[in-house]
């Protein structure tokens, strides 16, 4: 998979294209991307995913909708699908003012010129989200581009979306979060002193203050531990590893990846059998 920062780097004519933030790469995203790659492979065409940095929600100051994946993790997850290209477009002030028609004409048609487009049924684009699935469908019909849309993915009557997953994280409901993502929710943290950690990505959504049963990924191992999240007097989030699996050296890397399993009432609720 090649990550493209400039549309002038390649000739994408005839590719199969999808567009979106793809924050979290949840199970609904996975079905859409798998469809894209499969159909492109059948026609011996390139598969291309167009996404944005920063996430438009964060750009517009919606801190309650902080991202579910930072870029390194996002691209690591996308690599697994066998995509040919990921285009990362800078979402800045100029781009935020681009109308839906401008986006379709200048970016999609003039610079990419795909033979096929697939998007989710709730997809919007352009200034003030004026572009909809209907807008894209009409555009594709006009320019003889194959078009398809994926319905929202539903589990037990719950629509799986990045927004719904954010809501469940704020409720500390990691049973739903991890089921809807298709993997445990996690992020990188780093240490500035013994057993004290801070999130590496300031834009990533953090669970509420509390005590959590987690897993630490290290050297292809998954090691259970307990993490306490608190907000200090300066309103800065701090994390403390309360108990560490015996297999973990107390002097392990300053930067570690943690995955959340569930919230517990306190450290004493976690049995040794869960930790070791």
Task: Please characterize this protein's 3D structure.
The chain has helices spanning 27-42, 56-59, 71-79, 93-96, 100-112, 133-142, 162-170, 174-181, 272-275; strands at residues 2-4, 16-19, 47-53, 85-90, 116-120, 146-150, 153-155, 158-160, 185-193, 196-199, 210-218, 221-231, 237-244, 255-264. The protein is an alpha/beta fold. The chain has two domains: 2-155, 3-Layer(aba) Sandwich (Rossmann fold); 184-275, Riboflavin kinase-like (Elongation Factor Tu (Ef-tu), domain 3), CATH 2.40.30. The longest helix has 16 residues, at 27-42. The model has no long low-confidence stretch (mean pLDDT 87).
- What's the mean pLDDT score? 87
Cα gyration radius (Å): 21 Å
Q: What fold name goes in the CATH topology slot of the largest domain?
A: Rossmann fold
How far is the N terminus from the C terminus?
38 Å
Q: In percent, how helical is the residue content?
A: 25-40%
Count of β-strands: 14
Number of continuous helical runs: 9
**Overall CATH class of the largest domain:** Alpha Beta
Main sheet: which strands, in order across? 1-4-3-2-5-6
Order of helices and strands: EEHEHHEHHEHEEEHHEEEEEEH
User: How does the helix and strand content classify structurally?
Assistant: alpha/beta
Q: Give the CATH H-level superfamily of the largest domain.
A: HUPs
Overall, the morphology is elongated
Assess the beta-strand content as a share of residues: 25-35%
User: What is the count of structural domains?
Assistant: 2
Q: Which CATH architecture of the largest domain is right?
A: 3-Layer(aba) Sandwich
